[in-house]
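Notebook, student rotation project (T.W.).
Task set for the rotation: take a protein with a known small-molecule partner, predict the structure of the complex, and write up what can be learned from the model alone. Partner molecule chosen: zinc ion. Sequence and SMILES entered below by T.W., checked by me.
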Amino acid sequence: MKQPQHGRRHLGLDLGGTNTKWAVVEHDGGHWRTLATGQGVTPAKDGPDAVVGRLASMGAEVVAAWPGVTSVGIGVPGLYDPATGSTRFLVNVPGAWAGRPVARPVGDALGLPAFLINDARAFGLAELRLGAGRGARSMVGLTLGTGVGGVIAVDGRIHQGHDGTAGEVGHQTIDPDGPWCGCGNRGCVEAYARADQLALACGTPTAEEAVTRARAGDERALDGLAQVGRYLGIGIANMITVISPDTIVIGGGVAAAGDLLFDPIRAELARRVRTTSLDDVTIVAAALGTWAGAIGAAVHGAERAAEQAVDGSPA
Ligand SMILES: [Zn+2]
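Predicted structure of the complex:
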């Protein structure tokens, strides 16, 4: 096959309950580069058919504008079946998503191989390949938002587990009798560190306001961040003890608090990690911001398509 003069191009779509974001990335064999990003409204209230149709039409518009795209990856906010490319359960996107094909209809509409990935794993993959985790051998990532997304990379690859659900750092139990979590368990990291709980701990209407007030020196907001940082630190300490990552990447709006949140996390790690040295563990804020999910979905599609080509299985 004739190689195009530019690197190979790959489309990523990041399905969210409000907006769907897209990114086109280019890969020249070693180096990844983001060429373009954008977003449009998700027709969530019109149901899954409309949402999948919009993914396909948005993808078609982007592919027409950026010729040479060879794969598409789709980040979904929830659980999916990697073998069939169907969703199992989505957070914040209403409708019957169990068993709903997504990869195939979008891939068919674009004439491209298409693959699903969980949105937090997409965030992690983007940060690992071209963001704050670049060069990491093993990495743990968290995205702090409405929930607490998580991702684990081992030996330079995102660990997906047998069903794509591996890496749910936010749903590990840190208190057996703690508050109920949205997942149905109690005492998860997320039950203490999701945005509404962080706002509550800081005495502010929103998590963003909590960060603003903490930066201005507000004692209550600083205490709230320290409390949430402690819970996050317990969860991250568990991850460090089990996996011994060299890099921890923390993303989502609250990561803007920087050391106001990272210092209490570091203090908790110092208290709890006993089996490995923390000297070689770097804690960094995510670098790719709001586009990480779409960029990571594009990278995932590219890497899965390349693996299929090697395997010789049909795309
Ligand atoms: Zn949970």
